[in-house]
From TrEMBL:
<dbReference type="InterPro" id="IPR029071">
    <property type="entry name" value="Ubiquitin-like_domsf"/>
</dbReference>
<keyword id="KW-1003">Cell membrane</keyword>
<dbReference type="GO" id="GO:0005886">
    <property type="term" value="C:plasma membrane"/>
</dbReference>
<dbReference type="InterPro" id="IPR039540">
    <property type="entry name" value="UBL3-like_ubiquitin_dom"/>
</dbReference>
<keyword id="KW-0449">Lipoprotein</keyword>
<dbReference type="Pfam" id="PF13881">
    <property type="entry name" value="Rad60-SLD_2"/>
</dbReference>
<feature type="domain" description="UBL3-like ubiquitin">
    <location>
        <begin position="6"/>
        <end position="117"/>
    </location>
</feature>
<protein>
    <recommendedName>
        <fullName>Membrane-anchored ubiquitin-fold protein</fullName>
    </recommendedName>
</protein>
<dbReference type="InterPro" id="IPR040015">
    <property type="entry name" value="UBL3-like"/>
</dbReference>
<dbReference type="InterPro" id="IPR017000">
    <property type="entry name" value="MUB"/>
</dbReference>
<comment type="function">
    <text>May serve as docking site to facilitate the association of other proteins to the plasma membrane.</text>
</comment>
<keyword id="KW-0564">Palmitate</keyword>
<keyword id="KW-0472">Membrane</keyword>
């Protein structure tokens, strides 16, 4: 296998339609390394910048990619054209703040009641 065959050219599509890349990555590169690269190259003028790997989900070919997988393991013959650029969609979802967590896990007794009506 040549060096060219062992690499995949990837661009990362952000939620506003702009892209980071394309850039070539070895098939042995882990998804977590791709996420680190995204954080490092995130455009400074865009809001909602990810801070950690957990803030980012990468989607390729309709699948969410796991951090411990390699780029080679994530290749999909239906979507990845040899010699072409693979587009991975970037979903940024920062973890909820303390205030948001309190709303979800509220101890409000009204939220914990369930009512049924039988006619």
């Amino acid at each position: 296998m040549s060096v060219e065959e062992d690499q995949l050219e990837i661009k990362f599509r952000l939620n506003d339609g702009s892209d980071i890349g394309p850039k070539k990555f070895s098939c042995a590169t882990r998804v977590s390394s791709l996420k680190e690269d995204i954080i490092a190259q995130w455009p400074k003028d865009k809001g909602n910048a990810p801070r950690t790997l957990k803030d980012i989900k990468l989607i390729s070919g309709g699948r969410i990619l796991e951090n411990n997988r390699t780029v080679g393991e994530c290749k999909n013959p239906l979507y990845d054209i040899p010699g072409g650029v693979t587009t991975m969609h970037v979903l940024v979802q920062p973890p909820p703040t303390q205030k948001e967590r309190k709303k979800v896990h509220s101890d409000d007794p009204k939220q914990n009641k369930c009512g049924c009506v039988i006619l």
